[in-house]
Amino acid sequence: MSESFQFQLKKTDGGARLGEVSMPRGAIRTPAFMPVGTVGTVKAMYLDQVRETGADIILGNTYHLMLRPTAERVARLGGLHELIRWQHPILTDSGGFQVMSLSGLRKLDEKGVTFKSHVDGSTHHMSPERSIEIQGLLGSDIQMQLDECVALPATPKEIERAMEMSLRWAERCKVAFGNQPGKAMFGIVQGGDVPELRVRSAQALSGMDLKGYAVGGLAVGEPQEVMLRMLEITLPELPKEKPRYLMGVGTPDDILKSVARGIDMFDCVMPTRSGRHGLAFTRRGKVNIRNARHAEDMRPLDDQSNCPASRDYSRAYLHHLVRANEALGGMLLSWHNLSYYQELMQGIRQAIAEGRFADFMAETQENWARGDLEPV
Fold this sequence. Notes:
The chain has helices spanning 47-52, 62-67, 71-76, 80-84, 96-100, 128-138, 156-177, 195-206, 224-234, 252-259, 270-276, 308-311, 315-323, 327-353, 357-370; strands at 6-13, 16-23, 26-30, 32-37, 58-61, 90-93, 106-109, 112-116, 123-126, 142-144, 184-189, 212-215, 244-246, 265-268, 279-282, 285-288. The chain has 2 domains: 6-268, Alpha-Beta Barrel (TIM Barrel), CATH 3.20.20.105; 277-370, no CATH class. An 8-stranded parallel β-barrel has the order 4-5-6-10-11-12-13-14, surrounded by 5 helices. It has a 3-stranded antiparallel beta sheet with strand order 1-2-3. The chain has a 3-stranded antiparallel beta sheet with strand order 7-8-9. By secondary structure, the chain is an alpha/beta fold.
C-alpha cells in the first residue's frame, strides 16, 4: 500500500502496458477490469466472491447512489467502503453518462445539468462541483470529472460543443477536488468519432496535469473499428506515465484489442448482465446456456477454472436454473463470467511481463473462434 496515489509503468510489450496503481486502500494491477457495483452491489454477487475472482477495485455509480440511499446518508453511515464491506479501492463515475441518457428528463447548460429522478420524479441539479462533492461524500478513491457524453452518431458541431463544455467542467472539477492525499481525480477525453476533437481534448486535459485520464464517449453504438481508431488517435496525446481508463468497455475482444493499443483500466456491466440472461463467456467463446443442447450436458463450463461456478456445476443444471428463472442461475453465471474476465486480465498481465502479448492475443482469439461445440 502507498500513502499517496502512484502509478508505476513496469513494462511495455508493443502498445500493451503492465503497471500498478498504488494507493492507501491497496494496489490495482493493470491492465485491470473493474466489476460494476452500480448501487453499492455487484449484481447477483457477494463482494467477498468478487474479491476472490481477482478484482482489485470495483466501480460505484454516482447518479444512482445520490438518489438512493443518497450520498449524505452514505457519509453518515461511514462511507461507501464501510457500508458495503469492501475495504479496497473504489472508483466512482461522475453520474454524467446516466444523466445525459435521460434525454427528455434533463436540461443542460454551462452551470451543469438539471434532471428528474427516474425513481420518484424529483428534481436534482448536478454541477461539476456537486458531482465531486457527492463522490467525496461516498468516499471513493478515484473520482471522475463530470462530462457531457454525446451518443453517436452526432454532428461534428454537437460533438465539439459537448467536448468544449467537458473541458471547462474538468477545470472546475479539478478545483473542487483540490488536494486529497491518497486519492485521484481523472479527466475524461471526449470528441466522439472526430479525430481532431479527440486530439484537442486529450491535449487540453494533459495540460491540466491530472492523476489519470479516461477515454469516454465510446462503446455507445459505434462499430468496434471506430472505437479502436479513436484510441489510436487519442492515446499518443496522453501522458505515458499516467493510467489510462477506457470507460464502459467491454467484451473480452474489446479488452484484448484495447490493451494492445495502451489501455490500462476497464469497466463494464457485461459479465454480470450477460450472466443474468444466460450467456457465459469462456475460453472457447460465448455459450448461451439457454440453448436446448445443454439440457443433458453434464460437463462444467470450464473444468480448468479455479471458480466453483465454472468448475463444479454442470451445464445441464445451469440450463435448468436459467430456463426455470431461478435466481441461482444468474448468480452462478455472473460468478463464472467475472472469474473469466479476471482470469483473462491475469493472462494478459502475465503475457506482457513475459513479452509475449501478441502470441497470447492470437491464441486467445483462436480459442474463441474454435468454439464450444464439442460432442456431449
